[in-house]
Give the backbone structure.
Amino acid sequence: MRDHREDDEMLKGIDPILNAEVLGTLRAMGHGDDLILCDMNFPAQAVAQQTGLGRLLRIDAPMQRVARGVLSVYPVDTFVDDAAARMEVGGAPDEIPDVQREVQAELDAAEGRSWPLMPIERFAFYERAKRAYAVIQTGERRFWGCIALRKGVLPPEA
């Protein structure tokens, strides 16, 4: 019997952390749809039931690793200022925890430029998440590991 992890590595150029369910969802999303990446403390199941997809997706890995995988295939919207956003730390909106700094570094690397994560107040973030297309709960245990990414477009090939 084969280990299921072997199957995850059978595609060229696709990060093996991205499971089939996640890949199918990312592909189905359209321009302007939001994707939420959240930590283990976020009320992911309840929120995911209210999203376009209607069910929770999971990748049991640290937030930075999940962000790297997602951003390797996911175009971020360049038409709006809040395409990449982070949940503000309660009572300290200017504080940026390490988990968010790590995602910031992955976003900058994927986009090839500095792209600040816009802060969103905690309860406003919950509302944005409910209107999202999908929620991916990560294995991240650190607090404030909640990110929203709005899908952009891929230009036609020249």
Summary: The chain has one domain: 32-150. The beta strands are 34-38, 57-59, 84-87, 118-120, 134-138, 147-150. Residues 1-8 have pLDDT under 50 and may be disordered. The longest strand covers residues 34-38.
